[in-house]
Amino acid sequence: MNIWAWIGLLGILMFSLLPLLKKENRTKEEIRKTITTGLMVLGIIVAVLIFNVNYLLALIAGFIAMIVFDKKTYTKKRIIIYGSFILVVGIASYFFFRDNPDYVLNHLKDHPQTTSLYVAENGEKLITYHSDKVRPLASTVKMLIAVEYAMQINAGKITKDSPVSLDNLKRYYIKNTDGNAHEDWLKTMSSEGKIKNNEVTLHDVAKGMITYSSNANTDFLIDVLGITNINERAKSLKLTQQEEVYPIVSALLIPEHIENETSEKQLIKKLREMPIATYRSIAEDLSEQMKVGTIKAEDISFDMSMDLQKVWSDRLIGASANDYGKLLAIISNDELPEGAAATVRDLLEWPMQYNEQNHERFVHLGAKGGSTAFVLNDAIYAEDHNGNKIEMVILTDDLNLWQGLLIRKNMNSFESKLLGSKDYRLQVQKKLSES
Length: 435
Known about the structure:
The chain is of the alpha+beta class.
């Protein structure tokens, strides 16, 4: 549950308590209604946090429960009204919650200016839909950082078992900026007994960057590996449209760092007009201040507006789907040195470790996604038991709230169908070629 979900539930609870502020309203019926609402809110929280029920589904179920347990419901008029409401909600829920891989396909077709799809099969490009356009990668760029990490391990420049203090990682962590990715990783490290003397291994930090997508771990590794080394690696791999890497977390602090404008509109204009080289330089400087403690991440209260978050999202490190299709093929075809190839696979093939059913379909399955409030990307390579290989990259940008919800809901089924069906790949190829 994100902060807006908590605010919504708190609002429901507060609204139910308002009538009780007046003494004359404190009847048994009003008190009973307030208790029922409180139990509904508690039930939603338990369902979401303990039983992993979808928040929207739990909210709908809660309101239906309130209707069912309200004595006033059972009149002819209210039964008709509530019955119609439940029917409409049920139909809407069916269309929202059902798997619909074609929703993603249709979004790609309808939004050529903000989407890309790259699919290669056994070394041959099958779909290259706007795949030469540079778009924000979000966390998908962590795949490149993982490759540089693996290469430096292979060269003996760093070692997997090097201890890393959690306090050093904490310097890069700004609460409420990564969907609890960093905290979830820490919980896993603790439950698996991998935290010793407040330290974890460097390899566990790298796994946290990929599997959990911790931005704090990412910026820590960018510092350890060196920005110059990462950017040179991209060139050596011939990723010709890869933009230069810079710290992700510290870039969130840039608006506050330069904020001397009279309005947010002017601040946004200044950020958008700022040369990207200057923007990167500021991000690097702020990251260094976080590292040495001049800026204390734990003291930062993140409250950036959505308009400013859009600027941050738009200026994230970019590349083309072609580039990441090429990077996927390099990994899938073991074109890296043997030791580095094994390390990268260990990091990226977390879907094989977390879902046993994937072993029935694949020998190898590696992935790294990336998202913001406006971006949803994924890069996947797969090899089946017959040796057939597929590389697939999906980049989407400028998503509104509804588009983001539906693409997130249907992305997995779209990818699974693309990976599993040659006929569907050809159908997608044909439909996108007509647009």
